[in-house]
Amino acid sequence: xxxxxxxxxxxxxxxxxxxxxxxxxxxxxxxxxxxxxxxxxxxxxxxxxxxxxxxxxxxxxxxxxxxxxxxxxxxxxxxxxxxxxxxxxxxxxxxxxxxxxxxxxxxxxxxxxxxxxxxxxxxxxxxxxxxxxxxxxxxxxxxxxxxxxxxxxxxxxxxxxxxxxxxxxxxxxxxxxxxxxxxxxx
Length: 186
Hints:
- InterPro entries: Fe3_Rdtase_TM_dom (IPR013130).
- By secondary structure, the protein is mostly helical.
- It has one domain.
- Helix content is 73%, strand content 0%.
- It is built from seven helices and no strands.
- The protein has helices spanning 2-32, 41-68, 76-80, 89-110, 112-124, 127-141, 148-169.
- The longest helix is centred in the first third of the chain and has 31 residues, at 2-32.
């Protein structure tokens, strides 16, 4: 049973990283107004939200399975307060910090219509901090971090996010993907 919990914890953490990579990239694409893979802007936004919620669920399973795994030796305090863990405290603390940021972003996203667009947008910017913190956590804590497949997966995630963020920072980003039609003046 312990081995199954450990495998579940590792697997859900890795897939959560992939889901959040997809979420971040699609969030940037959604903001641009472009379509992807035949999906219109609203379809891309739906996939973005679905990937984000799937990632949140995977993180919950990741944390829960490792909490019950005696090998991982996580305690409830490790889930809330960063850098207090006994195993690789820096990297475990980054995971805790990522979970704390994820909780804030998730709650505000679910309450988007109540908190208003200004608060939603301000808090949503935290995802640009959340993602690299989670990546460093995975590479520092994960037992598969030095394997070729994990290094390749991390490199692919890093490349996708770096390319999307680089595109987002271009001055012409706001004008891309939107077609403006001149208004008829009567």
